[in-house]
Amino acid sequence: MKRDSLSKKIFIYSALIITIAMIISYSISVFFLEYHFISERKKEFPKIAREIEYFIKDNKNIELKNYIKNLKETKDITVLMMSEKEKKWINNRGGSGSGFLMEDLEDKKFIIKNQRLTEAKILLYNQKIENNWISIRSSLSILNYYKKEIGYFNLLAAIIAILIGLIFGKIFSKKFVKDIETLQANTKEISKLNFKSNLEIDRKDELGELSKNIKKMSEKLEVAINDLESFVSNTSHELKTPIAIISSKVQILMKNENIDSETLKIYKTILRESYYTKELISKLLILSKLDVSTSIKRENINLKGLLLKITERYDYLEFSKNLTLNLNLKDIIILTDKELLQIALENIIQNSLKYSQDDKEVKIELEDNVLRIENEMLLDNEVDLEKIFIPFNRGKNQRIEGNGLGLTLVKKILLILDLKYKVYIEENKFNFIIYLK
Questions:
Q1: I need a labelling partner for 239 at 20 to 30 A (CA). Which of 42, 126, 172, 387 fits?
Q2: Reduced to 3 DSSP states, what percent helix, strand and coil does the chain have, rounded to the nearest 5?
Q3: Cβ-based neighbour number of residue 165 at 10 Å
Q4: In this model, does residue 427 exceed pLDDT 80?
Q5: Burial of 379 (0-12, 13-18, 19+ CB in 10 A)
Q6: What percent of the chain has pLDDT over 90?
Q7: Exposed, middle or buried: residue 50 (CB in 10 Å: 0-12, 13-18, 19+)?
Q8: How far apart are CA 88 and CA 8, in angstroms?
């Protein structure tokens, strides 16, 4: 299954986050700028009125004139003044305004209206100070112009921010993903029981801590595996040696011409059980070695030649049960571990011969990179395909020699060699198929 790289995802998420942030910023500017502007002006206008009142009461006309001029230049706030007697607004530039009714003036009240001549929308605040009226005004129409400017700058800032964000996101994600890939490669080697990987990642964050923990785990696992290999090797020697001695001594005793039939029967039983124990120990040790095996020795092998060699080895079963071995083998060369594959095939072929009906046919076909082994099952044999790979599960085959570990070995070896397989029963015929890629 094709996977999206983490670097690509980080890159896309970074761009998405920046885009969303800029959209939110632009939306807030467009929809709430005027509201915020009016709110701030409503706080400021009464303060300006108090300042003007201070200048008027102290007759500081020059300071008042400069103050009003400064408001216009720095905050675009216009202040008009009018004496009740003159009934004409005078601004700081010497201009004037008229055409209104005195009775329409309302003290300390905010009004939003359009200018008569320009239709420009303004915020208006009038206040009476002694015998004068002051009118403090600020244009709201200018905000529409500013909104457009802000929009252009937001768009430009968004594009620049996205480009910069993507560049830094790409650089950061590469560095971040590179370290993760290093950890992934190392853990993959550890899963193959290869503990020689370099696990050092010079980081002060969680990834650096993770690499240290993996290194510690790898070192402890290596020690444990080495101890287990040593134990398996020593156990193999300690168990096989006494069994071999018992077998050889019993064989010597059986050659005694004066032995009675009852004693001979006992010797045969001891010899049979010693062979059984020897085979059982051998398979248990193979299973243990497979668990701690650190490498697969792959080589090109002629599978047809290997199958012929195996069938020849077990021809005593073929002859004792009067079986017909039907071989259809094509020349196929595969790259695999010969020793492991031979153990698996020996168990499969031996089983097909042991558990076949007498006087029947056993088929072994090898073509198109598929190995198919088929045998006629015993009539009273019931096989549960879901349990045949469970260790020591022999079902109703107790009367046939065996230890119930053969197919367990087969399954583990095929898994190690990464070979797909299938088993099924059809018309009382047991089929074992291996796909050789």
A1: 387
A2: 55, 20, 25
A3: 19
A4: yes
A5: exposed
A6: 21
A7: exposed
A8: 70
* Residue whose tokens read 């073929």: 318
Q: Does 2 have pLDDT greater than 80?
A: no
Query: By the 8 A CB rule, do 409 and 283 touch?
Result: yes
Cα gap 430→375, rounded to integer Å:
5
| Higher-confidence position of 427 and 236 | 427
Residue 425: strand, helix, or coil: strand
Read off the pTM: 0.50
Q: Please give the pLDDT value at position 96.
A: 47
**What's the rounded mean pLDDT across residues 95-100?**
50
The answer to whether residues 330 and 371 touch, using CB atoms and an 8 Å cutoff, is no
**Cβ neighbours, 10 Å, residue 404:** 17
What is the per-residue pLDDT across 360-412, written as a single tens digit (0 to 9) for each? 999 999 999 999 999 988 866 677 787 888 877 766 666 666 667 788 889 98
Give every CB contact of residue 328 below 8 A, 6+ residues apart in sequence. 363, 364, 365, 366, 367
Cα 432 from Cα 436, distance rounded (Å):
13
pLDDT at 325 over 50: yes
Closest Cα to residue 148, out of 32, 37, 26, 39? 26
- CA quadruple 60, 62, 63, 65: dihedral, nearest 10: 120
Let me know: does 239 contact 246? Beta carbons within 8 Å: no
H helices present in 293-320, as ranges: 303-313, 315-320
Three-class SS of residue 431?
strand
Q: How large is the average pLDDT for residues 190-203?
A: 70
DSSP for 121-183, written as a single string? EEEEEEEEETTEEEEEEEESHHHHHHHHHHHHHHHHHHHHHHHHHHHHHHHHHHHHHHHHHHH
Residue with tokens 């095929």: 414
Question: Which among 125, 106, 133, 120 has a CA at the least distance from the CA of 44?
Answer: 125
Neighbours of 71 (CB within 10 A): 20
Residues 49 and 51: their CA atoms lie apart, in Å, by 5
Cα-based torsion angle of the residue sequence 169, 171, 176, 180 in order, rounded to the nearest 10 degrees: 120
Closest CA to 423 of 411, 405, 413: 411
Q: CA-to-CA distance for 66 and 153, rounded, in angstroms?
A: 34
> Cα(180)–Cα(189) distance, rounded to whole angstroms?
14
pLDDT tens-digit series, residues 123-173: 989 998 878 888 898 888 777 777 777 777 777 877 887 788 778 877 777
Q: What one-character DSSP code corresponds to residue 78?
A: E
3-state secondary structure of 26: helix
